# Entry
Amino acid sequence: MKLFASLLIAAALVAPVVSAHANEPAKVAKPDLAKGEASFTAVCAACHGADGNSGAPVNPKLAQQHPEYIVKQLQEFKSGKRANAVMSGMAATLSEDDMKNIAAWVGSKKAKTGFAKDKELVTLGERIYRGGIADRQIAACAGCHTPNGAGIPSQYPRLSGQHAEYTAAQLTAFRDGVRKNSVQMAQVAAKLNDREIKAVADYMAGLR
# Structure
């Protein structure tokens, strides 16, 4: 009986300690920037630039993009939710940690500013970005991506300074059902014509 009582007391003393540890939130490892830079250089730099500032208009600038957004896109390229033969192949080689490391590193790089090129369309682009088109229930881009195009971390991507050609291609892909990983963007783009897409994409390229 004494042995049984001793075991009960020991269990009572240990149980709260185990319980307390069980309720502690799991520690999330911080991204490794050195590994992120190495992976980016090996896998991404050829298309997106050594510091994430792509020089090719067909490839997006990734510098200063919200890391959460980059991770989400890489996950969806890998799963096939966002279809792109080149990016799906690249993402397939990356682990979750690789994605987080890359996103944190390139997101820490400063984005180079861009500029609008089409003077004839810039006024239309500004009107759509800042005010939308009320009579067609087209929401203002600034409502989600902020007035200066900085976006909102974990929710909406940075758009300021992005290549107009890339932005226009993505809006067209959303509109035409080619890009399917954002219902919200598909609904907005569905209401835009080619001229409006070109105008708003060009305007966003000059935001800073």
